[in-house]
Design a protein that fits this description.
Elements: E1 8-11, E2 17-22, E3 28-34, E4 54-56, E5 59-61, H1 65-84, E6 91-97, H2 106-114, E7 121-124, E8 138-147, H3 162-176, E9 182-183, E10 187-188, E11 190-199, E12 209-218, H4 220-223, H5 229-237
Parallel strand pairs: 3-6, 3-7
Antiparallel strand pairs: 1-2, 2-6, 4-5, 8-12, 9-10, 11-12
Length: about 240
Amino acid sequence: MKKLEYDEVFTDELGSVIGIINGKRGKTLCFNGHMDHVPEGNPNNWKYPPYSATIEGGNLYGRATVDMKSTLASMIYAAAKARDKEMLNGKIVVTAVVFEELQEGIAMKNIVENHNINPDIVVLGEPTNLNLAIGHRGRAEIEITVYGKTSHASMPELGDNAVFKALPLLQFLKNINKEMPEHPVLGKETLALTKIVSEPPEGPIIPDKCRIFLDRRISISIINKGRNPSRNTENSRLYFR
């Protein structure tokens, strides 16, 4: 951003990078993208090393090339190009945020509340196959804890294995996506199991706690618009009982 001569570039308290280009009087347009990404997993499952940035057949391969470092590069250069071509009728703010994968929204909240940046329009650079998306599903992170009883692993019959107790629930969660509502624009709601943790975490001991982490993508609030919200809200609760 400094090389492209943005009017202002700074890093905030959380580590997000903010660049500002001042145009003529008008609205403030914010391009938002995140710098962090999910782990690469097992590198052996990759066609190319996940951090090699290999280019083949016109495609760039690597962790976060789509989600979403390519988007950030596009936004940063497009803003400068728009300024150079005298296309700006207002201000452009490019926010390259942190923690999106871990605490979605917290970095942008800090920028708005603590740095006096209040955009009129925000464009998120999440991958949409180059289609303009005017909305997205809501998201909830859910943690379920199943309790059992510890015993020494040499005498499992004296305990109550919390992981085994969780198996019927896990099977239920696996099948529930077939029953999820579907929105004509936003698509089908989903419930994804992302992590399972048993406790105590070490030693020859039967676990007395099994923690299950879920990622729930919701469009029920939009489906409810103009309908009976109480009935649909109750239906949505069935997925968590």
